[in-house]
Design a protein that fits this description.
The complex is a heterodimer.
Chain A: H1 2-12, H2 16-42, H3 44-47, H4 49-59, H5 62-91, H6 98-129
Chain B: H1 14-44, H2 51-57, H3 64-89, H4 95-122
Helix pairs in contact in B: 1-3, 3-4
Classes of the chains: A mainly alpha, B mainly alpha.
């Protein structure tokens, strides 16, 4: 079956570059699902303002706040990894080697965490400040 | 250690265009989406966002943020829906399945892009 073939393709090669690829897809799918919801409900500010306010109320729930922190992690990773891919694909393909690719993946994860942690602290403190309020 | 590179001719197909589109739009989205997330999610936060806040950003007919938000919507949504297509192509190999998939994704993309664009450019601050 075609489904099985694609899955085996993902799982047979397990270098770091493959994990970067799998995470790129997972974060990408997560962001586009959010984006479909986000564009649909934000547009309500024009089409049906009372429903827009209801949607914003939902986003203020702590569980959505945690989801937002994960969303920001996904966006930071997907963007940085995307630039990494673009660099090797279009700017400097001669530089690509298994070892350099491996290092670039590790650095992508390090920079992702460095950028995400302060953002998560700020967003987490917003959630705590507004809980029960 | 570097790898030996060679130049290959890429046929100018729709798929080659989509491949490039993901990369060019990706660079644009990298800037537009990160600034958007930095301002709306981190610096301002959802607790301070309401209709008055939107009215402040979308204050004149073609205000900077209306155009910004439209570009963000256009590039990120086309990038994302094409990404979904590329992911699902790895699981759907038959031409009939792919045709159905393409129509579903295309219509979803078109409807939501129009829905968002109309809201961005038609919104007027509520009176009072």
């Amino acid at each position: 079956m075609s489904f099985k073939t694609a899955r085996e393709g993902y799982t047979k090669y397990q270098g770091l570059g493959n994990w970067a690829f799998v995470l790129h897809r997972i974060t990408g799918i997560g962001v586009i699902i959010f984006l479909i919801i986000h564009v649909s409900d934000t547009a309500l500010v024009y089409f049906k303002p009372e429903w827009y306010l209801h949607a914003v109320d939902l986003y203020r729930l702590p569980i959505f706040g945690l989801g937002e922190i994960l969303l920001v992690l996904s966006i930071i990773y997907h963007g940085l990894n995307g630039l990494r891919v673009i660099y090797f694909d279009m700017i400097n393909p001669e530089m690509w080697s298994i070892e350099i690719n491996r290092k670039s993946v590790i650095w992508t994860w390090i920079i992702t965490l460095i950028l995400w942690l302060p953002a998560a602290v700020v967003m987490g403190s917003h959630i705590l400040e507004n809980m029960g309020g | 250690m570097t790898t030996q590179s060679k130049t290959v001719e890429i046929p100018q197909t729709w798929e080659a265009f989509a491949w490039k589109w993901m990369r060019y739009s990706g660079v644009i989205i990298f800037i537009l989406a990160w600034v958007h997330v930095l301002i709306q999610d981190i610096l301002v936060g959802v607790y301070k966002i309401d209709i008055g806040y939107v009215a402040g950003r979308w204050n004149s007919a073609f205000s900077f943020w209306r155009v910004y938000d439209f570009l963000l919507l256009f590039f990120s949504f086309s990038h994302g829906m094409n990404g979904v297509r590329q992911v699902l192509y790895d699981f759907i190999h038959g031409s009939a399945g792919r045709r159905v998939l393409n129509w579903v994704l295309f219509i979803t993309w078109l409807v939501i892009t129009i829905w968002g664009t109309v809201a961005i450019f038609s919104f007027t601050p509520p009176a009072g």
